[in-house]
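User: Here's a chain of 354 residues. Predict its fold as tokens.
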Amino acid sequence: MSENRPQNSINESTERAVKTEMLAPRFYRTDYAAFEKLNIEPVRAEWDTMMREFERDINREHFRKEMSPDLSNLKSDPDLHEEFIDLLVSSITAEYSGCVLYKDIEKNINNPDIAAAMKYMARDESRHAGFINKALKQLDVAVDLGFLKREKAYTFFKPKYIYYATYLSEKIGYARYITIFRHLQKHPEKCFHPIFNWFEEWCNDEFRHGEALALIMRADPKLLRGHNKLWIRFFLLAVYSTMYIRDHSRPGLYEAFGMDPTEYDYTVFEITTAISRQVFPFTLDTDNPSFRRGLNRLLEANLAIAEAKEQGGLIGLVKRGVLSAKIAFIFARLYVLPTKNNEIPDQVAMVPAW
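Assistant: Prediction complete.
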């Protein structure tokens, strides 16, 4: 922690966002020189079309609108209140992580194409993070974003890992937000906070960010071939399994939505899989019964780790070690499951049609 800022001046939400945990969003550094060398000429026509869309900035005024929440449901249900805050803190950490990363890349390169795209993406993510913080402020638990940026541990990722992981993060973010938004359109009585009414425009920003990363990868075909396919498989599985575990840790939230978390997750997987066909040479077979059993076993093992952590002591420590090895084994079995080959289309660009 910073010496000139005592820890007791930081609220619980900020402390939660700053913590580095296995399933929590992270902050990243990367090799800026590699971004400097990126050449998007092979996808120039589609890139320029995308950049004009960024320049239009159709959501310029959207996130300036005010929310007037009725907090009675949250106040009367402590579990829902806690899970909603957990969702918002996780979301603001992920959005602000993107903002910081994209801004850092822009500041450290002279490549005009990539710098311009990163500037626009950082702009959007900053708006998203600020908007979430409005909702947290109304709950008296706003995150100190300046403190978060200074004190959060940073993980170094090679550029190609940034491409794979961030592309998936942006696209699965779109799929998550649009699925919740469409559900609440049909069931407005389940919309317990107005922030969900902003999800359609919000997730369309996420979709555009994913388009930029898809074009970067398509401009350099070797990123999608050879041993790099092993990394694509790893990040697909890591992103899907992390989402599955985190969503099932918030049962009250999905009960309030009137949604089953398992059904919701597989809907999101289906959308993300369909989108990822624009760039990845294969997709995960999320309908495979072995895949579904594997995710459930990962969930059970993670719940058991939480119980062992709460138990503490030597016995709890030993249990956590055994369970961590079990998780690694389950993940490895999921990793080697058959995938579905995909013929990458000539046209990269997609529209958010879900």
